[in-house]
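Hi Prof. W.,

I finally got the Putative amino acid permease prediction working! I wasn't sure whether to trim anything, so I left the full sequence exactly as given:
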Amino acid sequence: MSMVSQPDGRPEEPPDTAGGGVTTRPYGSATAPIPASASPAAPAADDRHRLTTLQGLAALSLDAMASVAYGPESIVLVLAAAGAHGLGFTLPVTLAIAALLAVLVASYRQVIAAYPHGGGSYAVAKAHLGRRAALVAAASLLLDYVLNVAVSVTAGVAALTSAFPALYDDRTAICLAVLLLITGINLRGIVDSAKAFLLPTAVFVTAVLTMIVAGLVRDAPASTVTADGHPSALAPNATAVGALLLLKAFASGCSALTGVEAVANAVPSFRAPAARRAQRTEVALGALLGVMLIGLSVLIGRFHLQPVEGVTVLAQLADASLGHNAAFYVVQFATMVLLALAANTSFGGLPVLMGLLARDHYLPHVFGLKADRQVHRHGVLALAAVAAALLAVSGGDVNTLVPLFAIGVFVGFTLCQIGMVRHWRLGRSPGWRGKALLNGFGALLTGVCALVVTATKFTEGAWLLVIALPLLVLAFEAVHRAYARIGERLGLGRIPEAPHRAPSLVVVPVSHLSRLTCEALNAAVSLGDEVVAVTVTHDAPEDRPAAEALRRDWELWNPGVELLELPSATRSLGRPIAACVTGLTARRPATRITVLIPEAEPAHRWQRLLQNRRGAVVARAVRRDTDAVICRLRFRLEQGGRS
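And this is what came out:
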């Protein structure tokens, strides 16, 4: 049997889009209008490829969960500059961060309700702050998501190489292997990734909560073996704890808030009712993260822990709460695994955001396509490729990447909060003043964090982000202008003239007689008013017998179609056919010319390696040099010799 091929690949569909009026379907180089009602709601049959609340925690909260491994430590390391007196402010600083977390969770619950089709900061800024602010929010989130992948993977591998020093020299290869694993799982769908990471998430949360409870019932550390023999990172002389130091500690500790926005960005990935499930996931994430951050800070003060070189604060807390036993190693191993897998948050949020940008024509439309498992596979692959490049450049060293981390997310937080203030002012729903005040306070806090983190980390690599952010915005606008020019040339949005019939000529390249040739001519005479077969001949002695055999067999067959021979002085195949089509077009400008290229479709994928790819060569040459319509006819070779 035979068929005229469609674009290769699995079935794909446009991203979920907001309702109202007409939206656009990414396809090819331009857009085609589709009814908005066709896209917002996922069919019930696709629910198995979407997230439940529990799966949402596993798929979209790993970044935030894993941040408890370095958030409290970031606070302690800054406050250690003021000596033991400075460490006494660990809990107040953490409580301030927890308060900001509560503000963000409350805000993003409202974002989810107001913008149930995803996008988070980008969607809010686009609606209330204008195009440029929306692009800044999108660029900041893109940078943060990419850096999150690189930082998470390197942090997890760093924990592994700390336990097994012999692997240190192979850390880059291990990082790339972990990235490949996470990418492969996400290409199977976000639900599969959630199922795969549900157990590690549950083990980590249970281990940390158990450690907190065990530590709270102790009057003294169960063990200090982990820190013994390691030099203290505490400043030798106590200094005054000034506002700047507290502000810096607060900003550093806010790295624990990265990932809070991921749920709002990926609302379309949830099962119906998607907004309600996403809100529950956001609240559960905020509650767990807040309890763990405050609990760990209480234990730091309870056991009077000091930062030491070579040992994490979390490891010291596990040692003090649980003792240096099997439970200690469970906490360490769970932390290591979750740090490595925290990159999955980016794979859940970034492809959806890229799909929304593609829908708005700020990224190539290919990023808006979804495969049959509701996977934005092009976004997943692009994220993996950029993260792999970062890992290779950094050599798998987490210290090279950390200074760049978390700046972008604060920019997104701030723009989102400001946008929500405007949202409440315009809507004036009941209680809008209190909500606007809450979001305004959050915008102030996150804005200060963005400035402080950028200033303190500027010379350590944050300057790269300061450059990359505007460059990304310029790239978005360049893509948008390109699509605008394409749309203008195609006349999108305007009613075209009525279609009219033109004389048609179908050109069929052939190289021999076979059932494939017969099927091609059958299709050609069905498509066109006239059909001409063409074959490229070479004047080399080894080629003459084949050309003479084709000429003789064609005369014997006598299909009623002229066979035109195209002599070629070189071994080129596509150019002579393209030149023939160009000549036909010049002689018959009113005729619609179609080039029908017959190709055999093997019964098994591995048999594609046996094909000579002549059809692809001809198609590429005709597409490059002519305006002819290209039709590639696939003749399926079924198993058992039947077709």
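The beta strands are 2-4, 22-27, 30-35, 504-509, 530-538, 562-568, 592-601, 629-636. Does that look reasonable to you?

Thanks,
D.
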